[in-house]
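Morning F.,

Quick status update on the modeling queue. The single chain you submitted on Monday has been processed. Sequence for confirmation:
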Amino acid sequence: MGYNEKERAFIEWYPRGYGVGFKVKERLFETQTKYQRLELYETEGFGKLLVLDGTVQLVEEGEESYHEPLVHPVMLAHPNPRRVLVIGGGDGGTLREVLRHETVDRAVMVEIDDMVIEASKLYLNVARGAFEDPRAEVMVGDGVKYLRETEERFDVIIVDSTDPVGPAKLLFSEEFYRDAYEKLNERGLYITQAGSVYLFTNELLDAYRAMKSVFDRVYYFSFPVIGYASPWSFLVGVKGDVDFTKVDLGRAAKLELKYYDPERHETLFQMPRYVRKLLESE
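Structure tokens below.
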């Protein structure tokens, strides 16, 4: 796994020998932070590449294929998303997309690794002013601890974490989901990425099962993400009277999105038949 100097390529290997790779012009930066190995590369065709602990986080050309489906379906399904919490997302892309919504009065982002934020500011054209937006509060800290202890309530909670394996497993636990449910307002939406549909199917099922025990309703959907082992899965937890199957097309029209299509919102819910059967059996 990782950078191959001879081939001038970065390859992330998934389970069962499946790989996703990029041709690389040069390695720009690498360091061991307090929490993880951070690497940045210049790719041949997709701009800069951010890697954490050997896993692709994003490429500049195409990062919206992840950030748009993570943010806009829940933001547009909620009738009035004014207060939003982002856990993770140190590159700033999720915060950027949240702040595109005029309804937002306050957006809190809690990222555990300050080096991800700093390296992203220095090398990546992703945040595009999001960190400086007066509506945003960027905090360095443990998102699990913050959610447990905060007195604030939110309309939307977005978890932009690494894959549901290893240290990030806490973010996919029933206890964490209960904290999130409690910190949502009477009508609220929670979303998390949940890994590769084909290669992390068991992790997706575990997270779905845990969320169903907490939220009033749970939805699953998938989206093709550039740089990931697509299709990529997402899970949405609903609290109260919110219909996630419908979005506000009036608000959506102002956004000019590139990948997620609000006018075809229903296409999000397509899943490979065998995965849908597994999910429906839970």
